[in-house]
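Holo prediction — protoporphyrin IX containing FE.
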Amino acid sequence: MNPSANSIQINRDTMLPDVLRHFPAARQVFDRYGLRGCGGPYGPAESIGYFASAHGVDAERLLVELNQAIANPANAEQMAPAHATEVLADSIYRRFFKAGVVVILTAGAAWGALLLLRIASNQAFTSVSIHDINAHGHAQIFGWVGLFVMGFAYQAFPRMRHTNLWRPDLANLTFYLMVFGVFARAIGEPLFERPMFRELAAIAGLAEITAIGLFIAILLRTFHLSGKPYQRHDAYILAALSFFFVQAVYDLGLLWATTADQSKAELLRIISTYQAPLRDLQIHGFAMLMILGVGVRMFPPLFGLAAPGRKLVRNSLIVILAGVVGEAAFFVIMRRSGDHRWAIPMYISMLLLAGASIALTLRWGLFARPTERDRSSKFVRTAVAWLHTSMLMLVLAPVYMRVILPGMAELSISGHESATIGFSHAYYGAARHAITVGFISLMILGMAAKVVPTLNGIDPRRLSSLWLPFALVNIGCAMRVVFQIGTDFRDGAFAFAGVSGLLEVTGIAIWGVHLWRIMNQGLLAEKTAEVRPNRITADDKIGQIVEWFPSTLPLLLSKGFTPLANPVLRKTMARVVSVRAAASHQNLDVEQLLSELNMAAYGDAHGRPPARPNVSLPVLNHG
Ligand code: HEM
């Protein structure tokens, strides 16, 4: 059989939008393996082979099933699930991602940058209130990392198991609870001394605990209903989810204790005993384990990184778990007992944590040549380098604090204090920034830059490479790490550390606006696809027609409707002018204009969808 001009080759390299445009019946096959609302009406701009590996399905099997569906479209359409169009579960990630961007640009990084400027101008980390710092830390963990993790999990985890999200309405409730929690806490904690603000912060904590509990229940139910067995990367995800819940309860307890009416000495005792373990649970337990679990499953297909062996994946998890629990528990025991010998098992835990996380992530082969040009790849690879930096800083902390600092002839005022007490806040904060911004945030930036265009049907390869935000965040992070440590030696380093926050926030803002616009474009495309009619009529407005069918724009321009070239006029004036009015204004025959418009929109003068293309089934080759 000769393939006609309309027939397309279906193989691993065929793009999903090409298949779905020509063979609507193929949708139910893709939906079965987790496509659903992903990528808008014609699916994401990715190849069948890529879809197969990202969604964990054998490419040969997928091609055979596509072949069958196309050969028997009637059967296939009968079997099509109800969610071929956009439903809440498919778009819920958008509100989580957008809220995450709002948080980081307000109560999160932007607030952190202001605090840093105050620290720099006073040349002392102790010059800002601990409650202000903790409000920032909370917004970042719950509102930046938490909201992104939740949005991503609701979108991706059901698809990885080829199933639907259980109870999207409850998932939606978790969104409102989390957003309320994050903002109410951001206001309540710094202002806790005023009447009712402490209570507001506590209610915010309860809302977050409820949201996280529900989030975990929704995911577990979804996993269970999929009927698929758990895999090794799932163990990371389950561990991360447990830490997410535990840290939320711990965090509320600490908030209540630190905002109680008490002496400064008592506040210091509580913070110096319980705050560092909370950060361990949040950063190593929740955020890092979640990223590692998702990475083990998705980075090889998404970024062409090597897949770590099964044993390494299993053993690393066991060691990391022991490391996180050990570093948190032995620290509390050491502080409470006052016996410094507990520092030995605590340090061993840190060594385990660092060793296992570095060993696992090294296996991704970060320096190997990427298999395809991808703007997110640089974010992911650099993020892992920051993880290694932060882990090395963690294990070298005793050397720095016990050997280097006391051995230096010249120290700044704060450096002297650090050497006297044997603990450098500057060094510890720098190591934490390397992991929170360098590792966790770069991962979020990179993954979102990959999945958001894909989910909205836009090919990421045609978008900006995001070098500017990448450079700004990395330069800012490097400046912060280097100059924050530098403050132990020279007071002048405070100024450079202070500026670093502005670079980071600017980079994140550029990235956030870029992503936001893509999400809005996708939303518009879906709404447009939902409402557009089967036929253009004389009463339809010309601005609306161009939005429904961009292919009509050249025709209308050639007929003299030149104001349509201006997007603002398309959205305003042209929204009230009907085809009938426009035709009479230009002295055109309205029937003739309508048939040309329908031809441009549908390939048919009467507005019916185009006839099925001449399909030559033997073209389904597996090459
Ligand atoms: C991107 C720009 C950011 C800036 C300018 C910034 C700034 C700051 C500053 C000035 C402090 C207090 C000083 C210190 O402890 O070093 C701090 C603490 C903290 N930051 Fe950030 N931060 C940023 C991003 C993040 C991110 C992305 C996270 C989490 C993912 C985060 C989590 C925290 C936490 C948890 C603390 C409290 C640490 C403690 O327990 O003392 N920050 N940040």
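READOUT: The radius of gyration is 28 Å.
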